[in-house]
Amino acid sequence: MNGMITLRINGLDVQVEEGTTLLEAARFLGFKIPTLCYHEGLSPYGACRLCIVEIGEGKRARLVSSCTYPAEEGLVVRTHSERVIRARKMLVELMLSIAPNSKTIQDLASELGVQQVRFEVRNEECILCGLCVRMCAEQMDARAIGFVGRGQERRITTPFDMKSEACRTCGGCIYICPVCQLRCQGPEAPSAVCGSCLQLEPTCLEAYDDLMCYMGPAGVCGTCIRPVPDELRERERTKVKV
Amino acid sequence: MRRIAGRRDLEKLRIQLLKQTPSSRPCITISSGTCGRARGSEKVGQAFREALRKHGLDGKVTIRVSGCHGFCQAEPHVLVHPEGIFYQRLRPEDAEEIVVQTLLHGRIIDRLLYVDPATGKKSVYEGEIPFYKRQQRNLLASNALLDPTSIDDYIAIGGYTALAKALTTMRPEEVIEEIKRSGLRGRGGAGFPTGIKWELCRRSPGDQKYVICNADEGDPGAYMDRSLLEGNPHSVIEGMIIGAYAIGASYGFIYVRAEYPLAVKHVGIALEQAREYGLLGEDILASGFDFDLKVVRGAGAFVCGEETALMASIEGRKGEPRQRPPFPVQKGLWGKPTNINNVETWANVPLIINRGAEWYASIGTERSKGTKIFSLVGKINNTGLVEVPMGITLKEIIYDIGGGIPKGKKFKAVQTGGPSGGCIPAELLDLPVDYEKLAEAGSMMGSGGMVVMDEDTCMVDVARYFLDFLRDESCGKCLSCREGTQRMFEILTAITEGRGKEGDLELLEELALVVKETSMCGLGQTAPNPVLSTLRHFRDEYEAHIKYKRCPAAVCKELISSPCQHICPIGTEVPVYVALIAQGRFAEALEVIRKDNPLPSVCGRVCHHPCEAKCRAGEGGEPIAIRALKRFATDYGLREGLEPQPSRGPGREEKVAVIGSGPAGLSCAAELAKLGYPVTVFEALPVAGGMLAVGIPEYRLPKRILQADIRAIESLGVEIKTNTALGREITLDGLFAQGYKAIFIAIGAHKSLKLGLPGEEAEGVLPAMDFLTAVNLGKKVQLGPRVGIIGGGNAAVDAARVARRLLRDGEVTIIYRRTRAEMPAYPEEVEAALEEGIAIEFLAAPVEILSSNGKLEGVKLVRMELGEVDETGRRRPIPIPGSEFTLELDTLIAAIGEEPEIPFQDGQVRVSKWKTIEVDPETFATGRPGVFAGGDVVSGPGTVIEAIAAGKVAAQSIDSYLRGLPLTREYRLTRPSVYIPPVELSEEEVIQARRPAMPLLRPEERASNFKEVELGLTEEQAIKEARRCLRCDLETKEGKAAISGRAVEAGRA
Amino acid sequence: MEKVDEIIARYNGDRSALISILQDIQAEYNWLPREVLTEVAKKMGLSLTELCGTVTFYRSFRLKPRGKHLITVCMGTACHVRGAPRVLEELEKKLKTSAGATTPDRLFTLETVRCLGACALGPIVVLGDEYHGQMTKAKVDALLSEVRQSERGASQ
Questions:
Q1: Same-domain pairing of A171 and A215
Q2: Going residue by residue through chain A (242 aa), what tens digit of pLDDT does each one get?
Q3: Which of A17, A225, B26, B475 is deepest in the core (most CB within 10 A)?
Q4: Which DSSP string do the residues of B923-958 spell out, in sequence order?
Q5: What residues are paired with B422 via a beta bridge?
Q6: Rounded distance between C-alpha atoms, residue A15 and residue B732, angstroms
Q7: DSSP reduced 3-state for B518
Q8: Are A21 and A69 in contact (CB under 8 A)?
Q9: Residue A67: strand, helix, or coil
Q10: Residue B37 CA, distance from chain mean position
Q11: Is the CB of C133 less than 8 angstroms away from the CB of B318?
């Protein structure tokens, strides 16, 4: 064997090198799989579970994290089955309840159509995806921060919560963090779901020739986040394009 | 010790050891596992050694300190060989007696024998004990035959012969084939076929292979692995060497959890001894096979029971599971093929090699072979380790081996499979125990833990408990497991604290499914099982918590406040009035009682006190004598002439008719009168009170007491018209025509059920209710001199005790078809009946009534025996053919139950096939607008307090109806209306306090009068008993806050 | 730190024996002080971050000194069903501390464990080496008073 593996993703056959993960194979084919704790430059971890796909068929079909699962000969993979979508939505709902002020997570919620958060919001701002730990260890070779504790007590910190000698204050951890990366004002309580940014209808273009909320808090003026009225939509549709 | 050179050498050694210690030699085996030691078995062992020395038997009698025999309930216990005599619950002092009496004189010591709690029968020999009789102890029996710190003991009973056979006569592939054919499946939980696992490992390419014994037994309630490792470590070691040979592994690990220090110790000793004999190390038994083992201790992480986490732990890392594939048999420890099996799986291997795959496969079911050791714990009489063939039913395990539920409580569920498993309810008890069947029922075999739960266990609390465990033990890596278990826990906590809301259960199920499907390892994937299985089988219990704010088991503290108040059908504020009595504030206590109860003096005499059944003080002690305290307060009121001063609401116009003046009718009337309505109560009999007046005899409820309560109700303005019957003097339509705006039907269930036997029409056969009513109304009754009563409930006992008093001489016999333990009558009543000289013929049922010329002569009875357990948890009585006998009688009273008599026909008021009126269970409304019903006429024969509750709820419904409001009920958390500061008890008082026995009239003094039998507590007794109350009401957040001074008055939540 | 080095040497500094090494060190020192952990990391070539992660993962490792008397309440399923939570509550109330913590006078450390495997004795409280079965609120008071009395006697 020349180390190539054939598998079927969403009905399409694809050949990949041995050692390729399902995530890489699916993305190669152009399928969009949401991820959070995955980063190309770091080892895959499988903590956020967002990248789950359904493998196998019938009663034996199960969900696995595609970022860590190696391609197998003849494997049947479905990246967007009903089970997968249902699970992804719940996972994002859980994430929102931990860190509603993360634009990254809010955007994921919008994409997946998550419209409610039925859990008490904790505002913890860390979803323990471990990107910072892996960044520090693998890219920066410092190993200054790591996981301590277990279960609900698990958190990321320096040894003994004290200033670490190994830390070179490179800022890599802050850079890579999906919660810190893009912060936003977040929604008003109690819904914890915003959906503003991805549901922008650039109605202000008419008046300002610009999307005014480019880098600032989106939706502050209130125009965009209202659903575009039908008449406006109709007017836009029938306007002659220049 | 020297190396064993080969198979023949081993056999030689075995024969030599047997000669040294022949099995005919007297031996005392002391069961001394962790449980035994916890109960003092070491001191008992010491006492035996001293006693033997003292009586010169040192050297003639062997003392063997063995591991656990499985019968934990009886620890510390000994077996006296060669007879096999079993002595239980020993103290060091008993040792000498046993040495002298049994060893020297061959006498059995009766008081140390095992007594079956159900039958009272004593067993002398181990084999007779019901607990052991139904087991098949292929693995555990050896525990009793050896000292785990002696390899010689193991060899003497045939140990290591399987290893010798495998190494010298079988090729590795043949060993694997044998294990495959036996059908052995992993005993750790998943049940993967062991032979196939070994084969996969053997086939995996690798220069170095490992075997591991998973002894991280983390499931709470499971300890069979501990017992095997402590009691027979060599059986596991032998299994591992054989497995390593078959797979081609050269090194192995035994991973024992840190909480098992004795197991670690014994395994360590066993390994050293095995090495000395050359059974571990190089060239084992001259076969050329090298293998050694090491013990690795766990460090307190349940997740390390998961294969990949366990291996990470052995490698010195965090016990975080990793994704599979690759599986351990492909890439395990340090990337090498590794075979992991559970302790019990390994222990089965030598058995299979020695006795053959066919033998093993002949035990069990089609897909689950062999025996399994279960740890039977929780609310069960015989706690212990039970080894049974697969396919035995849960019912057999729980009732025949386990001896059923203690204290006569009702079975509710059995939890199998630990935190990964589920709860199995009573309806499924006939389930045969095997891997597939348990999974189908929503649970799993798991490691074999079986936790039995009874009516006092709350299933929502159990689900919450398991989630608490799992979120604590989750490694925390996956979002789904970590956050999912936490959020499920939060939802369950909210439900148990009374904050549950609509939609919670749906959210719980949705979340549970996602956690199950997306978690990476077995912990997360099975974490939702306890929730899903309790939701499947006990959904109504969840809904009771959310919708009705009720915890039927009276466990969830924030919901129930104190169990007594919560379980009382009318929510009597028990802790408040008990606390007031404790402080001598009797008049205030009486006010609290009267506030909710319109028939307080009656209840103080005859209530069946469900509060006492749930009283926390009763858990390991005696419940508070709540009813006696209520009686004390009401008697105080009567003595001091404290008339109730209830306030009447503003006068309302609408007239309400109540039909029936029993407890349901009187309460409804009282409640409506307090709300301001004019109420008339219509009573068919010449006296008011219903069952209270005509069913319950005078010596239990004196007429003057009943009258006091009725007078109080009349003083509210309630009018009682006697000699007015429904269907005779009044009709429903007639009442509406007379201007009544609402009617409450509470005519009770006064018709005694017929026996349904030939000859029942004979003169001298009396229905119990007719008999009791006649006596209570002062009519003359033709009786005796030989009276028989068929039945076992309160009506039967009442009839018997009344008959006893009416007869000058003569015999009174109660005939009941089961045993005393199953009699539904109150135990105090049965006790009193026996004291008064009434005979009870147990396990007898009538088949024919004998008469001549239309007059009763006697009854033909047949002997019964108790058969299988039915869904109520009681054994079904079966007639013994050919055992008929006759009892000559002059009067036969039929007291097997009552039913209502509906004296009207109404198209809208529906009547069920049991002759009860059908109503909306929450509002008590019938199908006809304005007509409500409650009490025994709706529920069938019930209790006084339940009837009172029905009357009160119906009154509220009637009030809503008359105001034109919707008939919805509001449900609130149980809370007392005030928090009385607790009394301080001295340490001595705490340790010495006991429930007082109710002073009773002596049997001689009761003989032929109807004087009240129970005399009531004295003031001193009452105060002392009230002080014993644990004040559960002060344990809620609100209660704690109230006492710490932040609030003194507290309203209902 | 010689003890630490000795223990590490006992296992030949084998990386996979880390947990056993830490267990032996804890048996020696009663807990795992920061300096000791730093030494272990150094001697065994581990990053301190990883060592802390491992130590905090397992419940049996203590990062705070333990009280003189260790009281452990079993919270297994069988014990739970028989009323263990109330026994724990009583202990927390009487000792004025919570599970996992040590009393300010360093006399008692109160811990919970998820099943000792002695379910027939439930609810169980372990004091030092002794198992006390069928605990009730009253027995808790009796037990604590016994320990306190022996402490008073010892100090006299």
A1: no
A2: 568 999 999 999 999 999 899 999 999 999 999 999 999 999 999 999 999 999 998 888 999 999 999 999 999 999 999 999 999 999 999 999 998 888 888 888 888 888 888 999 888 889 999 999 999 999 999 999 999 999 989 999 999 999 888 899 999 998 999 887 766 665 555 567 776 556 555 555 566 665 555 545 555 555 555 454 555 556 555 654 43
A3: B475
A4: T-B-SSTTEEE-THHHHSS--HHHHHHHHHHHHHHH
A5: B416
A6: 84
A7: helix
A8: yes
A9: coil
A10: 27
A11: no
Query: Could you give the ipTM of this predicted complex?
Result: 0.91
Query: Tokens at residue B750, please?
Result: 């006064």
The pTM assigned to this predicted structure is 0.90
Strands A76-78 and A4-9: parallel
Task: Find tokens 């395994």 and name the residue.
Answer: B267
Six token digits for residue B702: 């004196």
**Cβ(B371)–Cβ(B402) under 8 Å?**
no
3.30.1360.20, 1.10.287.130, 3.40.50.11540, 3.10.20.600: CATH of B371-558: 3.10.20.600
Cα gap B532→B510, rounded to integer Å: 10
Place of tokens 């997968």: A84
Tally of domains in chain A: 3
DSSP string covering A72-119, please? Answer: -TT-EEESS-HHHHHHHHHHHHHHHHH-TTBHHHHHHHHHHT-----S
User: HSE on the CB side for B545, CA within 13 Å?
Assistant: 29
Q: CB B471 to CB A152 under 8 A?
A: yes
Residues A27 and A62 in one domain: yes
End-to-end C-alpha distance for chain C, whole angstroms: 35
If DSSP codes are grouped into helix, strand and coil, which group holds residue A170?
A: coil
Q: Rounded to an integer, what distance in angstroms lies between the CA atom of residue B325 and that of residue B178? A: 27
* Chain B residues within an 8 Å CB radius of A91: 479-480, 514, 518
Superfamily for B655-750+900-962? Answer: FAD/NAD(P)-binding domain (3.50.50.60)
Residue that the structure tokens 């050498």 belong to: B9
Other residues' Cβ atoms within 10 Å of the Cβ of residue B170: 17
Backbone angles phi, psi at B308, to 5 degrees: -70, -35
Q: Which CATH class is domain B561-645+974-1043?
A: mainly alpha
The residue among A52, A121, A126, A152 with the most chain B CBs within 10 A of its CB, best to mutate, is A152
Contact list in A for residue C49 (CB cut-off 8 A) is 143-146, 158-159, 164, 166
Query: Can you tell me the distance from the alpha carbon of B289 to that of B246, in angstroms, rounded to the nearest whole number?
Result: 11
Q: Where are the domains of chain B?
A: 7-145, 159-361, 371-558, 561-645+974-1043, 655-750+900-962, 753-897
Residues of B in contact with C59 (CB under 8 A): 299-301
Asked whether residue A194 is domain-assigned, the answer is no
**Can you tell me which residue has the tokens 């039908």?**
A230
The token pair at B817 is 């078809």
- Whole-number Å distance between alpha carbons of B437 and B439: 5
| Helix, strand, coil tally for chain A in percent (to 5) | 30, 15, 55
Query: Which CATH number is correct for B7-145, 3.40.30.10, 3.30.450.70, 3.40.50.300, 3.40.430.10?
Result: 3.40.30.10
Give the CA distances from residue A93 to residues A177, B529, B827, in Å, rounded to whole numbers and listed in that order: 19, 22, 56
What backbone torsions phi and psi does residue C5 show, to the nearest 5 degrees? -60, -40
Assign domain C69-155 to a CATH class: alpha beta
Q: The domain containing residue A36 runs over which residues?
A: 4-80
Instruction: Mark out the alpha helices in B641-696 (DSSP H runs).
Output: 663-674, 691-694
Selected from 3.40.50.300, 3.50.50.60, 3.30.420.40, 3.20.20.210, the CATH number assigned to the domain covering B753-897 reads 3.50.50.60
Say if B312 is an interface residue toward chain A (CB within 8 Å). no
Q: Where are the domains of chain C?
A: 2-57, 69-155
Phi and psi at residue B182, to the nearest 5°: -70, -25
Domain B159-361 carries which CATH code?
3.40.50.11540
